[in-house]
Automatic annotation (TrEMBL):
It comes from Sphingopyxis granuli. One of its GO terms (molecular function) is hydrolase activity, acting on carbon-nitrogen (but not peptide) bonds. Residues 1-27 form the signal peptide. Residues 84-435 form the Amidohydrolase-related domain. Its EC number is 3.4.13.9. The keyword Signal applies. The keyword Cell membrane does not apply. It is an enzyme of class 3 (hydrolase). InterPro entries: Amidohydro-rel (IPR006680), Metal-dep_hydrolase_composite (IPR011059), Metal_Hydrolase (IPR032466), Metallo-dep_Hydrolase (IPR051781), OTAase-like (IPR057744). This is Xaa-Pro dipeptidase. Keywords: Dipeptidase, Hydrolase, Protease, Signal.
Length: 444
């Protein structure tokens, strides 16, 4: 009982709401057993493809997997033919509340001009597209006005379709840091406060973490180094060791994992030593830092989709950003190969919002990781079981095994020989509910 209470406390409001939504939302399906069949099955417990591709689903959960699964009489059988069944995909680096735009200047103006209510409608549309693409869960690593918390609750209450969201609220950042606002004149745009994630000194950064948790964060995002799409040098450390230790220590005390935006090696090293759970982007990580990450089980979240776009469309950005994009992208490819060689745990994260067509095309990240040297099976694990483990939801999702939520995707043919099949899902099921079939979305 105590364990259950601790789990709910850790899961926060989202956990409570999900328990409620689970009780009502899946009631319509509770009596019905659905059997999924296909040519292949990738259960994400290994890189192997199985041929006994049968998954039995009841009451929103997987009850049996494999050729010898008992099929109850009266079960609905869905035969997906020459396809592969996989666990629902998970994107651990998402910003659904940010609206992509190929024009950097228009995007900046829109973000300033839209009020939170209007932004929430865009976020809901992005969430729907993400779910239709087979992403049944995302970790939302930073956005303004707690729109991610509101969207998470609305999805959990079945008001609007979308992936299960783990929300981080505002990212924690230094003044002028990569997650602060651009340096708009203070007379025109009010500087951000600790409640909005901008902090100085250990006490204020601890307060900033508590503020995010108070208003509903399930995870914490911290910006350890400079960024590409910001006005600071990309590789410098921004928060001090004391500030990072305060952020990470406080978050962990509350049962929240911490993701660090970090391109630079010195900043990443500080974050890893301070107990960070994942390094996001990681462009300039040295072999020494990668080895330390492997030793401490710290995940790398490479976000190829974002870097790939900014680098290939650098002309559309202010000159300082374009220059940083070229330097970071060049270092990032080498860093990723070193991470693979060293054996750093890797989880799939897209930063999809950086691309104008990004939300709903998250599965591109699988192919980008494979093109950079990752085995297709390892890339699939990064977007399923590894991602679930990083965000602490491995008991509920990430593998096709009995007891897990019935978050299931089917892609055509064999994704180990054609990784881009992940970008053409035929079928998507979220907690037992079919949201896409025959390649067509059933969401209205
Ligand atoms: Zn990001």
């Amino acid at each position: 009982m105590l364990k259950a209470i601790q789990r709910i406390a850790r899961a926060g409001l989202a956990g409570v709401l999900l328990l409620c939504a689970g009780a009502t939302g899946s009631a319509q399906d509770s009596e019905k057993t659905v059997v999924l069949r296909a040519a292949h099955l990738f259960d994400a417990t290994s890189e192997r493809l199985r041929s006994d591709a049968v998954v039995v689903v009841r009451a929103g959960r997987i009850v049996a997997v494999g050729g010898d699964a008992a099929i109850p009489e009266g079960a609905e059988v869905i035969d997906l033919g020459d396809a592969t069944l996989l666990p629902g995909f998970i994107d651990v680096h998402s910003h659904l509340t940010l609206e992509p735009d190929e024009n950097y200047y228009r995007k900046t103006l829109n973000e300033l001009m839209r009020n939170p209510t209007e932004m929430a409608f865009y976020a809901a549309a992005n969430a729907r597209r993400t779910l239709e693409a087979g992403f049944t869960a995302v970790r939302h690593v930073g956005g303004r006005e707690f729109i991610d918390v509101g969207l998470r609750n609305a999805i959990a209450a079945d008001l609007t379709p979308g992936p299960r969201i783990l929300a981080a609220g505002n990212a924690i950042t230094a003044t002028g840091g990569s997650c602060d606002r651009p340096p708009f004149p203070a007379q025109r745009v009010a500087p951000l406060t600790p409640r909005e994630g901008v902090c100085t000194g250990a006490d204020q950064c601890r307060e900033a973490v508590r503020d995010q948790i108070k208003w509903g964060a399930d995870a914490i995002k911290v910006c350890a180094s400079g960024g590409v799409l910001s006005y600071d040098p990309v590789d410098v450390p921004q928060l001090t060791r004391e500030e990072l230790e305060a952020v990470i220590g406080e978050a962990h005390k509350w049962g929240r994992k911490v993701a660090a935006h970090s391109h630079g090696d010195a900043a990443s090293r500080l974050a890893v030593e301070a107990g960070i759970d994942s390094i996001e982007h990681g462009s300039f990580l040295s072999e020494d830092t990668l080895k330390l990450m492997r030793a401490k089980g710290v995940y790398l979240v490479p976000t190829f989709m974002a870097l790939d776009w900014v680098e290939s469309h650098a002309d559309g950005y202010p000159p300082n950003i374009a220059e940083k994009a070229h330097v970071a992208a060049a270092a990032h490819a080498d860093m990723f190969r070193a991470a693979l060689r060293i054996g750093v745990p890797i989880a799939l994260g897209t930063d999809a919002t950086v691309r104008p067509d990004g939300h709903g095309r998250n599965a591109m990240e699988f192919a980008l990781m494979v093109e950079a040297g990752m085995r297709p099976g390892a890339a699939l694990l990064a977007g399923t079981s590894n991602a679930a483990r990083l965000i602490g939801l491995e008991a509920e999702m990430g593998t096709l095994t009995p007891g897990k939520w019935a978050d299931i995707v089917a892609v055509p043919g064999n994704p180990l020989t054609d990784i881009r099949a992940t970008e053409r899902p035929l079928f998507v099921m979220q907690r037992g509910r079919v949201v896409r079939r025959d390649g067509i979305s059933l969401l209205r």
